[in-house]
């Protein structure tokens, strides 16, 4: 997959595009996306593509979806964003011990940004996964969570 081809199909993922074009792009990426492009489905896009991006990432299975873990956690900045709830569903596939270092990193970033909504999203994820807060290196940050 060349960069130009990636950009073309990425543009078709926008919800303003005709449904058949969106479906074509989702199907294309689901079958042909290379690992180096997976994170960019979220990283290089905006809210208007995240719902479709999550369809693609979900279709890849957990072994390839883990590539985008940092960006799946980014979607938790606002649980009302398109793709946020789908992100949680994908994250549920992973082993919780595998997730803890990523959650710690994102929690530190959310604290650095003073983003209480993001902290809330992470706290919500932790609750849904049944992760004990005591295993996190920066668990005190969770007290700053605001919906």
Automatic annotation (TrEMBL):
Name of the protein described by the UniProt record: DUF5071 domain-containing protein
Domain of life: Bacteria
Sequence ranges assigned to domain DUF5071 in this UniProt record: 62-127
Pfam families: DUF5071
């Amino acid at each position: 997959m060349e960069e130009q081809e990636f950009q073309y199909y990425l543009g078709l993922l926008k919800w303003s595009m005709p449904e058949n074009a969106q479906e074509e792009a989702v199907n294309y990426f689901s079958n042909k996306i290379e690992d180096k492009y997976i994170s960019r489905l979220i990283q290089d896009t905006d809210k208007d593509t995240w719902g479709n991006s999550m369809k693609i990432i979900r279709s890849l299975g957990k072994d390839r979806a883990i590539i985008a873990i940092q960006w799946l956690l980014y979607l938790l900045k606002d649980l009302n964003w398109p793709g946020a709830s789908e992100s949680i569903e994908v994250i549920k596939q992973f082993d919780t011990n595998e997730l803890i270092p990523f959650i710690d990193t994102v929690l530190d970033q959310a604290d650095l940004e003073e983003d209480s909504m993001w902290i809330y999203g992470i706290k919500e994820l932790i609750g849904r996964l049944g992760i004990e807060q005591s295993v996190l290196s920066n668990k005190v940050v969770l007290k700053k969570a605001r919906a």
